[in-house]
Specification:
Two copies of one chain form a homodimer. The first copy, chain A, is built from six helices and three strands. A three-stranded antiparallel sheet of chain A has the order 1-3-2. Chain A has one domain: Orthogonal Bundle (Arc Repressor Mutant, subunit A), CATH 1.10.10.10. Chain A has helices spanning 7-23, 27-39, 43-52, 59-66, 70-82, 102-116; strands at residues 57-58, 86-91, 94-99. Chain A is mainly alpha-helical and 119 residues long. The first copy, chain A, starts with 6 loop residues before the first helix and ends with a helix. At the A-B interface, helix 1, helix 2, helix 3, helix 4 and helix 6 of A face helix 1, helix 2, helix 3, helix 4 and helix 6 of B. The first copy, chain A, binds a DNA duplex (30 and 30 nucleotides) through helix 5.
DNA sequence: TTATCATATGAATAATCTTTCATATGTATA
DNA sequence: TATACATATGAAAGATTATTCATATGATAA
C-alpha cells in the first residue's frame, strides 16, 4: 500500500478489497471458467464452434466445413465437449454435434460485437 | 461425404456448408477473437478481470487483491490490455485499470451463469 | 536534480498445449 | 459373423506460453 494514502483513501481501499473478496470465485470455479474460455481460445476450435453456430453437424461434415483432418477435429471436439461448449448425440453411425446452450450462443454474439468495435 | 447419402441429404449438406462459409469469419478475425478469449483463459488473468469487474483498481491494489507478484500482474495486465479486455489510465504515479467495456462485462456475467448450470 | 515510488519490460526457464500418426472402438450392413 | 464405416484416443514431437528475476521507465517530491 502506498505509504502516503490518506485515511479516507485507506478506508476506500479496504472497502474495495472486501468487495473483491466477496465477489471472487473459488479457485476451483476460477479454474473451470478459465478452462472453458481456453477451449474456445484456439482458432481451430473457435472455427468449429462458429460452424456449429449455424446448425448441427456430424464430424465428417464439420471436418469438411472447417477444412481439417479427422483426428484433429475429433480431439478439438473432445475439448469443446469436456468444457460444455458443445453437445454430442449419436445418430446411427454418426455423432451429431450442437452448440451446448444459449449462454454459448450469447458469448459468440458478444465476442463478435466486441470485435466489430475495432473497425 | 458418406457414400450412401440420399440426393436430399446431399442438397441439405451443401446448403449447410454454404451457410457456414457465408457466416465464417476471416482467418484474421478468427485469430483476433481467439487471442481475446485466450487472454481471459488463464486463472491468474481471469482473477484480475473478476476483481476489476467490482470497480477500477491500480496495479498495487490489484496485486494485493489477487495475491501475486507485481511483475506477474503487470505482464498479465499487458496481455489483457493488448486484447482490449481492460483499459488503463494514468493518475499521478499510478496506473488505474478498468474493464474495457460492456461486452466484457456481459461475457463475465454469461460465463458465470454458464458455470452455475453445473450445480 | 537526485531520490523514491509505481509500473513496465526483456530474457530465460519451466510448464502446457496442439497436432499428427497409428490404431482402437462402436455401429450398421452384407 | 465378418466387413466397412464413422468417430475416438494414446503417445510423442514440436510449438506456445506463463512466470520469475533483474532492470528500465516515467512521475513525483525533497
Amino acid at each position: 500500500m502506498a505509504i502516503n494514502d490518506s485515511p479516507v483513501e485507506r478506508a476506500e481501499h479496504e472497502q474495495r478489497l472486501q468487495d473483491v473478496r466477496r465477489t471472487m470465485l473459488s479457485d476451483e470455479k476460477l479454474a473451470t471458467m478459465a478452462a472453458r474460455f481456453k477451449a474456445i481460445s484456439e482458432p481451430s476450435r473457435l472455427k468449429i464452434l462458429l460452424a456449429l453456430s449455424c446448425g448441427e453437424l456430424c464430424v465428417e461434415h464439420l471436418t469438411q466445413a472447417v477444412g481439417g483432418n479427422q483426428s484433429a477435429v475429433s480431439h478439438q471436439l473432445k475439448t469443446l465437449k469436456d468444457n460444455k461448449i458443445v453437445r454430442a448425440r449419436r445418430n446411427g453411425k454418426q455423432i451429431i454435434y450442437t452448440v451446448a446452450d444459449e449462454h454459448i450462443m450469447l458469448m459468440i454474439k458478444t465476442a463478435k460485437e466486441h470485435l466489430d468495435c475495432d473497425e
